[in-house]
């Protein structure tokens, strides 16, 4: 994607200062995460916000929620702040330059969302910022699960999107930290092909696991994202 800006129905996202650009993973997670059936989540934490895309999606979906977005790249944080300020939700969105591991917060969150770095054994990109954004050395699945478990309310949920082959690792780390799998959504590029990505939701209480499959461009994908795309 070579565009500097993407226009959605209620907001635009500029991305020229961010290593990680607007992509399908973020759109899907922002549309799917935080499926709270009892009460609307009041406080949401977006980990590794980048452009602020996912934070903006959940801000549109939950009109009364307060969203904190964190990233280790100061330039990305500045870009997210600009995108937040230009949106109709700016008064409910806060961007902070911090890692999850070093986040200073007394707040307990009703939902935590993360499109985490997941390249573990691949060669590192010569672009240092892109390496930080893409490689799991900055935030391992174990750290994501451990710190999220500490920051979640008792009824809160952690939602992530990761490569399908990493599902077992992420689930094991979450269970070790007292989190149980509650929702699974496999993402396919074509109906006949294996899933490339999987979205997972974890909570502190044991629940019946909901399973789903979404094909990019298919009926479920269109239904999930229709409130955002022009």
Explain how this protein is built.
The protein has about 230 residues and is of the alpha/beta class. Helices cover about 30% and strands about 25% of the residues. It has helices at about 25-30, 55-60, 75-85, 130-135, 140-150, 165-175, 220-225; strands at about 5, 10-15, 45, 65-70, 95, 110-115, 150-165, 180-190, 195-205, 210-215. The strands form two sheets. The protein has an eight-stranded mixed beta sheet. A two-stranded antiparallel sheet has the order 1-2. Strand 3, helix 2 and strand 4 form a beta-alpha-beta unit. Helix 1 (about 25-30) packs parallel to helix 2 (about 55-60) and helix 5 (about 140-150) packs across helix 6. The longest helix has 12 residues, at about 75-85.
Compact description:
The chain is of the alpha/beta class. Helix content is 28%, strand content 27%.
